[in-house]
Amino acid sequence: MNVDDIRTVGILGGGVMGAGIAMTFAQAGYQVIVRDISEEALARTRQRMLEGRFGWRRGVELGRFTAEQVEEFLGRVRLTTDLADLAQVDLVIEAIPEDEELKKRVWAEVDRVVKPEAIFATNTSGFAISSLNQAVSPERRKRFLGMHWFSPANIMKLVELVYTEETSPETLAAMEELCRRIGKTSIRVKDAPGTYGFVANRIFFAAVAEARKIVEAGIAAPEDVDTAMKLGFNWPSGPLEMFRGARSGWE
Ligand SMILES: NC(=O)c1ccc[n+]([C@@H]2O[C@H](COP(=O)([O-])OP(=O)(O)OC[C@H]3O[C@@H](n4cnc5c(N)ncnc54)[C@H](O)[C@@H]3O)[C@@H](O)[C@H]2O)c1
After folding, report:
1. Which residue's C-alpha comes closest to atom 15 of ligand 1?
2. Left if phi > 0, otherwise alpha if psi is -120 to 50, otherwise beta: which for 23?
3. Residues 17-20: contacts with CB within 8 Å, 24+ apart?
4. What does pTM read for this prediction?
5. Is the dihedral of CA 48, 53, 55, 58 positive or negative?
6. Structural domain for 234, as ranges
7. What angle do CA 157, 158, 164 make, to 5 degrees?
8. Do 159 and 216 reside in the same domain of the chain?
């Protein structure tokens, strides 16, 4: 699949990540089909895209988009519960719950329905891609990779592209160019079975674990640990306050 041939993107799961990923592609001019398992879930997807904290209405308030643009974006997003609607998409991005068996079950089902040349990308936070890809046919594994986004997906710039020994160089190159076209910066990550997480989360959670140890040992107060990283290393927020709800984003 050449990057120019990617026009329609299917997204499995319209939750926190799926909605943000759908927004990103719709804003970049792609047709998007989001598949979730119930009409209620899809109503929440629409709500998230429009009214969410990082949604399009807020974007309009902040002067990032016009109301007309938001109508255009919305017009490119189709919501469905029917997997068959994804049969002709060029790329499938899976953002269903972080449950390895569930992901494998769904990928096997999707492999049977979606056209053979489509690329499959999983937004797993950390399962080995070479385990998830066992759910699809050996031929499809050339076009199977990890595509790990960061929350809020429509705002954060980084995407980790995780390749296995079976991922073809053409697939990886097409996805790198696609990331560039949707305004993201991708990094290449080699699949590492036996570990959980890719690059950014492994480093971040190692820092969080160390920060917690420092607090538990009574060495410094949580606020001071956060101040240390913000003023000592220019982190935009401290390792502990990330869990108190502070997050970079529109603001
Ligand atoms: N939340 C984050 O910050 C974050 C960041 C990066 C990656 N991830 C990963 O992204 C994935 C999704 O996370 P999330 O936070 O968006 O979860 P979420 O619970 O918000 O959304 C999951 C959605 O998948 C739907 N779903 C369940 N089974 C389905 C199926 N068979 N087909 C289609 N849809 C189905 C659910 O109804 C729900 O709407 C997970 O693998 C997670 O580890 C999350």
Report:
1. 16
2. alpha
3. 17/95, 17/123, 17/149, 17/151, 17/153, 18/45, 18/93, 18/95, 19/45, 19/48, 19/49, 19/52, 19/153, 20/48, 20/54, 20/149, 20/151, 20/152, 20/153, 20/154, 20/155
4. 0.95
5. positive
6. 200-244
7. 150
8. no
Closest ligand 1 atom, residue 122 Cα = 41
Pocket residue to mutate for ligand 1, from 33, 36, 157, 202, most atoms within 8 A of Cβ: 36
pLDDT tens for the 251 residues of the chain, in order? 899 999 999 999 999 999 999 999 999 999 999 999 999 999 999 999 999 999 999 999 999 999 999 999 999 999 999 999 999 999 999 999 999 999 999 999 999 999 999 999 999 999 999 999 999 999 999 999 999 999 999 999 999 999 999 999 999 999 999 999 999 999 999 999 999 999 999 999 999 999 999 999 999 999 999 999 999 999 999 999 987 654 444 33
Indicate whether 99 and 221 sit together in one domain. Answer: no
Residue 73 counted as domain residue: yes
Judgement on whether residues 94 and 207 belong to the same structural domain of the protein: no
Among 172, 190, 208, residue at a domain's last position: 190
Q: Would you say the CB of residue 155 lies under 6 angstroms from ligand 1?
A: no
Domain total for the chain? 2
Q: Please answer whether residues 184 and 158 qualify as being in contact, where contact means their C-beta atoms are separated by less than 8 angstroms.
A: yes
120 beta partners? 92, 144
* Residue 96 to residues 62, 73, 118, 179, Cα–Cα distance (Å): 30, 23, 19, 21
